[in-house]
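User: My instructor asked us to take a sequence, write out its structure as tokens, and then describe one feature of it. I'm not sure where to start. Here is the sequence I was given:
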Amino acid sequence: MSRLILIDGENLIYGLRKLAGKDGNRATREKLLGFDFRGLLNEVLEDEQKAQIMFYGAKLRKFSADKAILKKTTEAIKWQSYLVNDLQKQGIQFVKVGNLRARETDPCPGCGHHEWHLLEKGVDVGLAVRMVAAASRNTEIVLVSSDTDLLPAVREAKEKSRIIYIGYENSLVVSLVRNTHITKVITAQMVANHLQKNQKKVSR
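Assistant: Let's start with the prediction itself. The structure tokens for your sequence are:
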């Protein structure tokens, strides 16, 4: 039986940052540069079975509405380029789907300051399409995501494939546990095991 590992990239990065953080604060994205993703997957799955690994992320672009959003999107593109390079070295395919959107918050009542939030749109759709298309009796699908928007695709794929759900310590999604065959958990200790000591420095 072949194995296909589908990773919701931003969901995984967020989960790893939470597990790598301290005192309730998330670790920075920079802390994950050089992260051993393949080693983590081998540890959580408890084997080294050959698999096709696909890491889904948004197509990024610069926004120039003001200096703040230009800086933020420029840094996001820089971060993604380092990430893609790390993934390629580990034999993991980075799949660009969907788009990046920028949303400005309401102004602060006191000072009038706006914050910009970057949102990935369409990544879950691209991953879901791949999951359903790949489902077959001869394919085991591993889903690395806790996004409940993927539930319809999970239920559809489960009719043909064995589905393994990989979630995060202390934040497993019950609906995904119930709708998949096997659940595996990424722990804080596992994340610590695969952080790299000599990491690249990227300006925040």
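For the description part of your assignment, you could build on this observation: The chain has one domain: 2-193. Try explaining in your own words what that tells you about the chain.
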